[in-house]
Amino acid sequence: MSRLVFIAFIVLAACSPSKETDETRHNLQGYAEARLLYMAPRTSGPITALAVREGDQITADRLLFSLDDGTASARLAQAEAALAAARSRLADLRAGGRPQDINAARQSVAQARAALKLTQDNYERSKTLVAKGQAPQARLDQDEAQHTQAKAALRASEARLALVRAPARINTITAAQEEVRVQEALVIQAKKALDDLRVVAPVDASVQTVLRREGEIAGPAQPVLVLLPPAQIRIRFFIPEPRLGAIRIGQKVQFSCDGCDDGLIGKISFISGTAEFTPPVIFTEKERGKLVYMAEALPNDPASFHPGQPVLVTLP
């Protein structure tokens, strides 16, 4: 019998209309919600330095942690050496022959000119002697042939000097230029890989949790730290279905909480499009069982709130 009475009491309570006071119409319970940043490196490796502790307030670009960089440093040194070699080869191709080759070609030209001068003198002398009948015609013919050979030898030496001085062919220089570009890209890649081993804070934040310590392995799926940027704190609350039509995104609201300063305000930034039942985290004694819509508001002073802190949201 007592059980039937209890059930009848529950049914009557559920069917009876509830009075909505002015306070419950304008005040909704909520809580501070934090969107955390999980900081992880781009590559895997052992942690060699941890530069922050839990509770630290850090600024953007502050070093958080670093991984072992032995392999990355060696690859960067290798890439830089290959780049230097490629640039040196390109410079040699543009400059032409080596200095020692050019000097040797110049000496050959000087010797050829001296030989030409000697054969020229012999040829002129022979012509004079043959004209006077003091030398046979065969001598003149021989000196003329030697003079002709000396002129040809000089032209060959001068051509050799010009060839040694000239830069390489355009297609060879173009290939060397492309090789320099490839090595420059490899150096940039190696520097990026080295920089990725030093993880810095993307924004001002507080260090919430240290997940891994020095000596442990970290990686893209193994974060080291959890950060909380103040701007990522928002107030989550639930709007009863009857009031949904009177509330808009961008609407101003007021906040109050235990130990907080007066006059805290913010704006509604999100209203869910799906209804749900009042969640257990909202400890209200009235309106249980009615549909509500989850909403979020961005406080003007997010640093005034702590994640999970109960907050009373006052609607206009």
Characterise this structure.
The chain has 316 residues and is an alpha+beta fold. 16% of the residues are buried. Strand 11 (252-256) and strand 12 (264-277) form a beta hairpin. The protein starts with a helix and ends with a strand. It folds into three domains: 20-35 and 230-314, Efflux pump adaptor protein, beta barrel domain (Elongation Factor Tu (Ef-tu), domain 3); 38-68 and 196-228, OB fold (Dihydrolipoamide Acetyltransferase, E2P); 75-192. Strands 1-10-13-12-11-14 form a six-stranded antiparallel beta barrel. Strands 2-9-7-4 form a four-stranded antiparallel beta sheet, with no helix packed on it. Strands 6-5-3-8 form a four-stranded antiparallel beta sheet, with no helix packed on it. The protein is rod-shaped and about 140 Å long. It has helices at residues 2-15, 22-26, 70-95, 99-132, 137-165, 170-195; strands at 27-34, 37-39, 45-50, 57-58, 63-67, 198-200, 205-210, 217-218, 225-228, 233-240, 252-256, 264-277, 291-299, 310-314. Helices cover 42% and strands 25% of the residues.
